[in-house]
Amino acid sequence: MSAIERMFMVIGDPIAHSLSPVMHRSAYAALSLSAWYGACKVTARDLPDAVRGLRALSVAGCNVTIPHKEAILPLLDDLTARARAVGAVNTVTLRDGRLVGDTTDGEGWLRSYQDAGAPSLAGQTVVILGAGGAARSILYTLLTDTPTCARVFVVNRNGERAARLCASFAHLAKRVDLVACSLDELRAQEVDVIINTTSVGMEGAQWNESPISPEFIRAHHWVSDIVYRPAQTVLLIEAEMRGAHTHGGLGMLVYQGALAFEQWFGVTPPIDRMMAAAKEALRMNR
Ligand code: ATR
Predict the structure, then answer these.
(1) What is the pLDDT of residues 222-256, one digit of tens each?
(2) Is 279 tagged catalytic?
(3) How far apart are CA 261 and CA 61, in angstroms?
(4) Prior bond to 211 cis, omega within 30?
(5) What is the pLDDT of residue 149?
(6) Element spanning 36, H or E
(7) Using CA atoms, how far apart are residues 84 and 73, in angstroms rounded to an integer?
(8) Strand partners, 102
């Protein structure tokens, strides 16, 4: 057996159920690449040592997941403009001995949404449910991708957090009307797209809840949920019952990985293979 040329990994805690290893390995196999991808549990306390270890071992690239996406920023040598603006990193690349952090989550959502056959967001009105890290990544992409949507409403359980998020991105919202609002205020608005970035509907305590009442959903809406366990959340089931178009969360996960792969190898990976591997791993996890 020949030596593996380049090493990659995902770090997080917990990490056992990460789909990244099977996704990336399926792409290596499809393209006959001499590369290795592992999953390493790294506790919050050990993160600085782990980052030093990446440098010491010349790990070519690394994905970063919960709970390190924000904590890793000051430990890296460089950040892309979007990682700095979003305040999160999910992809690290070793370039000339320096660890460079980027975030592909928001672009991953957009690519997956477009891949689902959704119409262009140009001129559209989008609702983001939630104001956490995932909302930040997607909002950054909505504000910077051109042509841009016309309006974004950010709705969050904690309204002050939504207001703070909008204020912190106001400088990017030159062509977009960016507004924090309540669910009640949303009732009076015409919208095109609803994106759930909250954990409501996720496997566990909140699996049987939806972040929004079905009465908000119209048949012309595109309803996107970044939750992928389960694949069919209550939000998506109710949206389908109302005749709306739906978009699940697995595509965002696959595309954020595919975009990291592109940065590391300079070629587009076989998305279908990565998607099939992720779906199979999800099925086996059950
Ligand atoms: P992530 O980085 O994955 O986005 P996060 O930063 O913890 O995670 O954000 C979680 C989001 O889900 C927040 O918008 C949170 O709302 P609050 O800011 O009000 O806490 C939202 N969320 C979590 N549980 C919720 C619930 N039961 N109902 C409504 N929103 C919820």
Answers:
(1) 999 999 999 999 999 999 999 999 999 999 999 99
(2) no
(3) 9
(4) no
(5) 97
(6) strand 35-41
(7) 8
(8) 91
For ligand 1, mutation pick of 198, 206, 229, 253 (most atoms within 8 Å of CB): 198
Band (pLDDT 50/70/90 cuts) for residue 5 is: confident
Q: Ligand 1 centre and the CA of 67: distance in Å?
A: 14
The DSSP output letter for 170 is G
Tens of pLDDT, residue by residue over 127-183, are: 999 999 999 999 999 999 989 999 999 999 999 999 999 999 999 999 999 999 999
Burial per residue of 123-161, b for 16 or more beta-carbon CB atoms within 10 angstroms, e otherwise: ebbbbbbbbebbbbbbbbbbbbeeebbebbbbbbeebeb
Query: Helix/strand/coil (H, E, C) string of 92-137?
Result: EEEECCEEEEECCHHHHHHHHHHHCCCCCCCCCEEEEECCCHHHHH
Give pLDDT, residue 205.
Answer: 80
For ligand 1, what atom is nearest to the CA of residue 206? 27
| Dist. CA 45 → ligand 1 center (Å) | 24
The residue whose CA is least distant from atom 8 of ligand 1 is 132
Q: Which two tokens stand for residue 113?
A: 């949404």
Give 60-85 pLDDT, tens digit per residue.
Answer: 999 999 999 999 999 999 999 999 99
| Residue 259, CA distances (Å) to 20, 24, 194, 265, 267 in order | 12, 11, 24, 10, 10
CA 280 remoteness from chain centre: 20
Tell me 3's DSSP state. P
Residues 6+ away with beta carbon under 8 Å from 260: 61, 63, 90, 91, 104
Q: How far is CA 189 from CA 148, 160, 186, in A?
A: 19, 20, 5
Contact 164, 193 (CB under 8 A): no
**Which helix (H) or strand (E) covers residue 35, if one does?**
strand 35-41
